[in-house]
Amino acid sequence: MSKDAILGAIRRGLRRGPLPADQAAMLEGRLATHPRHLIPARSRIPRPDQIALFIRNVEKEFGTVARVDGPEAVPGAVADWLAGQNLPPRFVMAPHPDLLALPWSDRPMLTFEARRGEGSDTVSVQHGWAAVAETGTLLFPSDPTRPTTLNLLPESEIVVLRASRIVGAYEEAWDLLRAERQDAETGGFMPRNLMFVTGPSRSADIEQTLELGAHGPRRLHVVLVEDDPAAR
Q: What residues does the LUD domain cover (predicted)?
């Protein structure tokens, strides 16, 4: 059913016709200008403090973070984390150009396949599009080079994130999305799916007992690439 058909059905149910021109113009203007609501002061801090806030919030939500000086250090950080978790040195990886360009040959013991996730995968390496400091949340717009299944199926997820992609508040993340994406068919900016991930999957539905990995990865590890001079 098209958007116009859905909205038409709602109008008929409310016994209301199209909006008057002045009201329609007011609503269109509000949608076009993206007005800001109240932004928490905790995210309005100097850049190094924003990065530190992001790390604290990831760790508060049972995730872990390793900081590396540049992309060339990512394979070593992945290998070290896998060894520290007593996991085999193999994984499935998002077929993103940034990840494919990393010097994986420096760590010949690591083996991987660049593809979407499957139910039998144990570890994924995902490309982090952006993150929000105020809650420690990672954002993953769906994309052929960033398969959503990598966020859901493997028991352990490693996310490679550039420090320059950490913003203070959610409003700034939406600004990035609008600025960087435009669908050629619809003219809109929204991907098919936009996943917000704050720590590993967990649930306390049964007897209020926290269980990690309830409906997604049990472990979440962020490899944070220091590419933002202002954040040091």
A: 130-225
Give Cα separations from 212 to 60, 125, 142, 154, 200 (angstroms).
14, 19, 24, 13, 7
The verdict on 80 and 165 lying in the same domain is yes
Summarize pLDDT for 25-73 with one digit per residue, the tens: 888 888 777 777 788 888 999 999 999 999 999 999 999 999 999 999 9
φ/ψ of 38, rounded to 5, equals -65, 125
- pLDDT greater than 90 at residue 88: yes
Is 119 exposed, middle or buried (CB count within 10 Å of its CB: 0-12, 13-18, 19+)?
A: exposed
Q: How many domains does the chain have?
A: 2
| Residue 150 belongs to a domain | yes
Q: Does residue 38 belong to any structural domain of this protein?
A: no
